[in-house]
């Protein structure tokens, strides 16, 4: 396997206003990659908290969340300052290699229309996940839909569905009955499984 991500910390309890650090180590053979921390609260929705590019020397920050990225040591810890009740969740560390390409420019859509966003990807691995995220003007990235490479059935989530073509390495997002709250930037990502 070309890459691996490891989290060894058990469940923990933290008081409000405390600072907590979550550890993650990784292994990869490539030099160009992205690292992510996700938060999955009890509601089950997966939310991207922060991302770090391997080639950026400055550690990423996002409000009360920051990372300590040590490329040489292959470690990527998440620091949560001034913990709040809303921080109660499962936290997941992820690594993305490979190439994902979106070529569509900004577009205008009328309410109730159907929209398709295209994405292609390139990987030699066979065990991966593909994701579509929505980043509204509020700037918080929200997971819309996820597709496992080994599932033949295309994923659906309410008005959102995908057309996953493994052989063609394409992964388009279809939004049915567009609504005003769909106005956002849409991003797709690929993450490998162990």
Automatic annotation (TrEMBL):
InterPro entries reported for this sequence: Ig-like_dom, Ig-like_dom_sf, Ig-like_fold, Ig_sub, Ig_V-set, TCR_variable_region
Segments forming domain Ig-like: 3-108, 111-186
Highest taxon in the source lineage: Eukaryota
SUPFAM superfamilies cross-referenced by the UniProt entry: Immunoglobulin
Keyword match rRNA-binding: no
Pfam families recorded: V-set (PF07686)
Keywords for the protein's UniProt record, in alphabetical order: Adaptive immunity, Immunity, Immunoglobulin domain, Receptor, Signal, T cell receptor
SMART domains, per the entry: IG, IGv
PANTHER family: IG-LIKE DOMAIN-CONTAINING PROTEIN, T-CELL RECEPTOR ALPHA CHAIN V REGION
Name listed for the protein in its UniProt record: Ig-like domain-containing protein
């Amino acid at each position: 396997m070309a890459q691996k991500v490891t989290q060894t910390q058990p469940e923990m309890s933290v008081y409000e206003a405390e600072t907590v650090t979550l550890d993650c180590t990784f292994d990869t053979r490539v030099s160009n990659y992205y690292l992510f921390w996700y938060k999955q609260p009890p509601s089950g929705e997966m939310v991207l908290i922060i991302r770090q590019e391997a080639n950026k020397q400055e550690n990423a920050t996002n409000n009360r969340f920051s990372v300590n990225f040590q490329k040489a040591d292959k470690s990527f810890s998440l620091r949560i300052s001034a913990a709040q009740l809303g921080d109660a969740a499962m936290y997941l560390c992820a690594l993305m290699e490979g190439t994902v390409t979106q070529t569509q420019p900004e577009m205008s859509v009328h309410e109730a229309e159907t929209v398709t966003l295209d994405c292609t990807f390139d990987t030699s691995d066979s065990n991966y996940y593909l994701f579509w995220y929505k980043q509204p003007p509020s700037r918080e990235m929200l997971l819309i839909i996820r597709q496992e490479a080994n599932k033949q059935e295309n994923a659906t989530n309410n008005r959102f569905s995908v057309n996953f073509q493994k052989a063609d390495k394409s992964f388009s997002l279809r939004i049915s009955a567009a609504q005003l709250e769909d106005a956002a930037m849409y991003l797709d990502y690929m993450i490998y499984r162990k």
